[in-house]
Design a protein that fits this description.
The complex is a heterodimer of chains A (547) and B (175). Chain A is built from eleven helices and 18 strands. Chain A is of the alpha/beta class and 547 residues long. Chain A has a domain of 255 residues: FAD/NAD(P)-binding domain (3-Layer(bba) Sandwich), CATH 3.50.50.60. In chain A, strand 14 and strand 15 form a beta hairpin. The relative contact order of chain A is 0.19. With 175 residues, chain B is mainly α. Chain B has one domain. A two-stranded antiparallel ribbon of chain B has the order 1-2. Classes of the chains: A alpha/beta (547), B mainly alpha (175). At the A-B interface, helix 2, helix 8 and helix 9 of A face helix 4, helix 7, helix 8, strand 1 and strand 2 of B.
């Protein structure tokens, strides 16, 4: 064992959520250390890696895993990191690197709708959250102001204060959807962490249309922005620090964490308070790995719920040709959606969903299709232009209910560092499948209103995954059925908190990052109150856990 | 935005046509294949293998002009990825010369006859249009901004990662 580090607050994971919790705590004067398993990346190198990649349709290609901190890769071959126990595959993607998975995201920064946190009471399904939408509102606002969120008030999520920025300019393609689907479907601007004007030293979007895998110009807020903000506030980041064990003392308080450097040298980090923020798969993995004589089922796991209630957002979709030239690919990738199906009495019968339109350039896909079809000669160019101008896609984003059988466990297989790999147990139940069936009528109607031809529905029973890893360390008031309390503190360990989309008790229909950030800011306030905390937090009990 | 005329780069690079080279490429074609690509007769053909590749490429991608430097890079990459590549290119060109196969029917004919040349047209089209040679873990990116799928739509779209234009410029009608 060599080297010893110590801090008031030790954060495991440098993604957008952990880093923004770290930033807030550092701003309050705490010493903060962030341990990140993966390496530091440079934006320009990621851009170059994408341009030079032979598999541009695979957005993970510019983010190759490091041998000491592997993450799942499926193209051109499954690297076998996330083991699949079935019955339905859960091919989650995430990035283990400084800044985490939001290096590549569409920057959709949604709030929930108020009823999302009360679906048990209202609809008899899932569980209620241990806090209300109204309690979340100020934390959403704080998160939106940090990220720089652009949006409008017509998405079903109420707010007390205005968005930091007006919505990003609507691409022509989305304007035509909006005009032609009205009044049957209101098409509205997505709420996004993308600049519609210069904001916080970052420029307005210039339409590079590569939000995924990488925004080249820093117009979209990424985890690396959060890391840099945390560092500016005084936090220290240790990259390539693969935490493999959380150590507790005789009283059950966390005393230290242990990490491997890439050379497998072992390091011990002590602290007063620990925040686990390594995403909804790596975090439960670490809790399970840290089993001891006192906690044989893993830390924070007296309920047996660590790793359970794994959720995401599966999607089915329709691709078709509109009867006019729309030329997807001008402007950002994810500009607009239909939000009217996110809530309703039907939730007692089937999942709610959002309908999302892509504005990703269709050129790559169309080229692949034409090559596959063997279209040669002058017809190739003609078809490429015709299809690239007209091909469009609408997908649903379906809620999955919390089910204890959907879970992350430890695989018997180990990675190169000798650490057990995570294993996913996953199924998509009838509640979600019924909604996929219902949404087909929406797809058909949308295609009809757009004069659609060449309709191609995604294969029956096949769902695409959206990488919104949720659940696995759910929050709740009852220590027997949840892992953390309403402030993210583990029920079992006084000084161990979880900041992650993994604490969300239900997945709702919205990309989970903003909710994860809002909850993390609330956790940070609970650990160490800000000097100028907003009024809404006056109702919460504050607690300084610093030694 | 000021879209670049798609062929302008190729035209500049090809420069003035050398009549002796024109004859060389034309000499690889029959009247039928020459009729498919009258413009391509003016393409440079440094030697027979590369000339056959240029001619076959022109037939498959149906373009008015092909960038000579890119042709060289793609040929080298394809020849490195597929050992029999030069001979296969010659064989497929000969097939087209002799049997007067319509490019639209080509894949069907090759597949129907279980021809060993069946994968070749897709390899060449993929190289030109995606800029990618090889497959799976052996795939290589040889071109991106100058791959034909970017060039063909360059009056409307920029390749992803390149700025479309000033903020909001995407709100207008594309064409």
């Amino acid at each position: 064992m060599s080297g010893q580090l110590s801090a008031d607050i030790v954060v495991i994971g440098s993604g957008i959520i952990g880093s923004l919790a770290a930033r807030r705590l550092a701003q309050q004067g705490a010493s903060v250390l962030i341990l990140e398993a993966g390496p530091r990346l440079e934006r320009a190198r990621v851009v170059a890696a994408f341009r030079n990649s032979p598999i541009k349709g695979n957005w993970m290609a510019p983010y190759p895993p490091s041998p000491w901190a592997p993450h799942p890769i499926y193209v051109p071959q499954d690297n076998g990191y996330l083991k699949q126990a079935g019955p339905y595959p859960y091919p989650a993607e995430y990035i283990r690197a400084v800044g985490g998975t939001t290096w590549h995201w569409a920057a959709q920064a949604w709030r929930l709708v108020p009823n999302d946190v009360r679906i048990k009471s209202l609809y008899g399904v899932g569980v209620d959250w241990p806090l209300s939408y109204e309690e979340l509102d100020p934390w959403y606002q704080e998160a939106e102001e940090i990220l720089g969120v652009a949006g409008a008030d017509n998405t079903g999520s109420p707010r007390q204060h205005p968005f930091p920025m007006e919505p990003v300019a609507e691409p022509w393609s989305m304007r035509r959807f909006r005009e032609r689907l009205a009044p049957a479907y209101p098409v509205v601007a997505n709420t996004v962490a993308r600049n519609s004007r210069g904001y916080d030293g970052r420029p307005a979007c210039v339409g590079n249309n590569s939000c995924q895998p990488i925004c080249p110009v820093n117009a979209q807020y990424l985890g690396i922005n959060a890391v840099e903000a945390a560092e500016a506030a005084g936090a220290k980041v240790v990259p390539n620090a693969v935490v493999f064990r959380i150590e507790h003392d005789a009283k059950g308080r966390i005393a230290a964490v242990h990490y491997y450097a890439p050379d497998k040298s072992e390091h011990r980090v002590t602290g007063a308070t620990f925040i686990l923020a390594a995403n909804g798969i790596e975090s439960p993995k670490l809790l399970l790995l840290s089993a001891s004589d006192k906690y044989p089922n893993g830390l924070a796991n007296s309920s047996g719920m660590v790793g359970r209630h794994l959720m995401d957002h599966p999607s089915t979709s329709l691709t078709f040709y509109a009867d006019e030239e729309l030329w997807l690919g001008r402007g950002p990738q994810s500009p607009s959606s239909i939000n009217t199906l996110r809530d309703g009495a039907f939730r007692s019968q089937h999942a709610p969903y959002r309908l999302d339109f892509t504005n990703i350039s269709q050129v790559l896909n169309v080229t692949g299709d034409l090559i596959k079809e063997g279209v040669y000669g002058a017809e190739f160019e003609k078809q490429l232009r015709w299809r690239a101008a007209r091909q469009v896609n609408v997908k649903n984003v379906l809620e999955v209910l919390p089910n204890p059988d959907n879970r992350i466990t430890l695989s018997a297989e180990k990675d190169a560092m000798g650490i057990p790999k995570p294993e996913a147990h996953y199924a998509i139940d009838d509640y979600t499948r019924r909604a996929a069936e219902v949404s087909k009528a929406d797809f058909a109607r949308i295609a009809e209103l757009m004069g659609g031809t060449g309709l191609r529905y995604s294969a029956e029973g096949q769902f695409a995954n959206n990488q919104h890893i949720t659940g696995t360390m759910s929050m709740g008031n009852d220590p027997a059925s949840s892992v953390v309390d309403a402030f993210g503190r583990t029920h079992d360990h006084e000084n161990l908190f979880v900041c992650s989309t993994g604490v969300m008790p239900t997945a709702a229909t919205m990309n989970s990052t903003l909710t994860g950030v809002a909850l993390a800011l609330r956790t940070a306030e609970h650990i160490l109150p800000a000097k100028n905390a907003h009024a809404a937090t006056a109702h919460s009990s504050h607690e300084a856990s610093l030694a | 935005m000021a879209p670049e005329e798609p062929d302008s780069v190729a035209a500049r690079r090809n420069g003035p046509v050398d009549p002796s080279r024109r004859r060389l490429l034309a000499g690889l074609l029959t009247a039928y294949t020459a009729s498919l690509i009258p413009w391509a007769l003016a393409q440079p053909a440094p030697h027979a293998d590369r000339g056959a590749f240029t001619a076959l490429s022109a037939i498959l991608v149906g373009r008015q002009a092909l960038d000579a430097a890119q042709a060289t890079r793609l040929y080298d990459a394809l020849a490195a990825a597929h050992p029999n590549f030069p001979a296969d290119v010659q064989a497929l060109l000969t097939l087209l010369n002799e049997r007067h196969i319509d490019p639209q029917q080509l894949q069907g004919v090759l597949d129907g006859e279980h021809s060993p040349l069946a994968p070749l047209p897709r390899q060449i089209l993929g190289a030109w249009t995606l800029g990618v040679v090889g497959s799976g873990e052996g795939a290589r990116c040889v071109a991106y901004e100058t791959a034909l799928n970017a060039v063909i739509v360059a009056d409307v779209l920029k390749p992803p990662t390149y700025a479309y234009g000033a903020y909001g410029s995407w709100a207008s009608k594309p064409l």
